[in-house]
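Priority: medium. Attachment 1 of 2:
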């Protein structure tokens, strides 16, 4: 059988992006817009995006950073807090401002201090979201200090997500950046129309051992943290299965190099410049390039009730070396995922 050297897909979308703000936003938006037509934008700025006006203003700042001649649509989300008004979400959805709502358990990850402290406190909001069909995007980890960091996703599913879906069976939910076999198995067992899960490029490529190869690798540190190899293989099988519940979400999360290489380094992997080449490489390694379009371009729009994009991108089997760093205005640097390494695929 001849080796596949070229893959053309309907232009994909990224269903989980961190753009940050200010000079960082100016650097990272073009990288996402180069590969993806749309992106679900995370609201964990400082202060967080909790109301309609803040979401509209942030959307405009993103659009202003899109390179001339490039078509890109940011899909905005609201940051769920214990004080979120159901009417704010109802009005934001009605006006087409909010495409979804993001639930961060308080203290779970970067800029999550304002997140939800107890799921019971937001049940009236979630009931309204179920009523109007507004998706809930969940960072699925418990934050109890007695729970091992590698177990926090599985415990969240058992203690919080399972009971939540039992109480609100029609609530549309995306379990974001899944990292465990338990998450894959849970999502696979649910009704296909009501739940989805995003899978990152980096969690398809690394396991927890990679964090310590040759010393601590701060640019591979993310939350949820990478898990054992058995979990990476479960993610790969899910991504390549064609199952419409699993779709692309990079969780690209830029932090300046000096903030990653620090005594208390930030969590986040910056994958936007290499995302589609890495997904192509992973699917190629699995012998599943024929399933890449469903995962990257079809399943996400179907979950969100949107049409698939009509334009296309092409990936070529052509080795290239990922830059060691990327300059950011103001003098800082970003280190992209797989910096200095050779990838087998690139955008045409």
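Attachment 2 of 2:
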């Amino acid at each position: 059988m001849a080796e596949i050297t070229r893959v053309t897909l309907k232009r994909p979308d990224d269903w989980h992006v961190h753009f940050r703000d200010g000079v960082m936003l100016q650097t990272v938006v073009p990288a996402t817009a180069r590969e993806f037509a749309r992106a679900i934008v995370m609201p964990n700025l400082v202060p967080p995006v909790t109301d309609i006006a803040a979401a509209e203003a942030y959307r405009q700042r993103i659009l202003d950073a899109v390179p001339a001649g490039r078509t890109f649509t940011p899909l905005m989300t609201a940051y769920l807090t214990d004080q979120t008004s159901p009417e704010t979400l109802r009005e934001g959805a009605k006006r087409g401002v909010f495409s979804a709502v993001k639930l961060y358990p308080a203290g779970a990850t970067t800029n999550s201090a304002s997140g939800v402290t107890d799921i019971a406190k937001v049940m009236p909001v979630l009931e309204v979201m179920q009523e109007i069909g507004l998706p809930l995007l969940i960072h699925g980890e418990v934050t109890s200090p007695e729970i091992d960091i590698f177990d926090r996703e599985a415990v969240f599913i058992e203690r919080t997500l399972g009971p939540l879906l039992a109480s609100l069976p029609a609530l549309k939910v995306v379990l974001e950046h899944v990292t465990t076999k338990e998450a894959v198995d849970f999502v696979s067992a649910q009704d296909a129309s009501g739940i989805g899960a995003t899978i990152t490029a980096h969690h398809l490529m690394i396991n927890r051992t990679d964090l310590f190869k040759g010393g601590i690798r701060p640019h591979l540190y993310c939350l949820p943290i990478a898990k054992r190899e058995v979990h990476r293989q479960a993610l790969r099988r899910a991504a390549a299965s064609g199952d419409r519940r699993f779709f692309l979400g990079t969780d690209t999360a830029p932090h300046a190099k000096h903030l990653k290489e620090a005594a208390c380094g930030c969590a986040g992997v910056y994958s936007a410049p290499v995302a589609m080449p890495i997904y192509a490489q992973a699917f190629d390694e699995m012998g599943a390039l024929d399933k890449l379009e469903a995962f990257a371009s079809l399943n996400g729009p179907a979950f969100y009730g949107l049409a698939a994009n009509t334009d296309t991108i092409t990936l070529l089997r052509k080795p290239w070396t990922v830059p060691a760093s990327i300059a950011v205005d103001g003098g800082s640097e970003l280190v992209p995922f797989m910096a200095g390494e050779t990838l087998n695929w690139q955008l045409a």
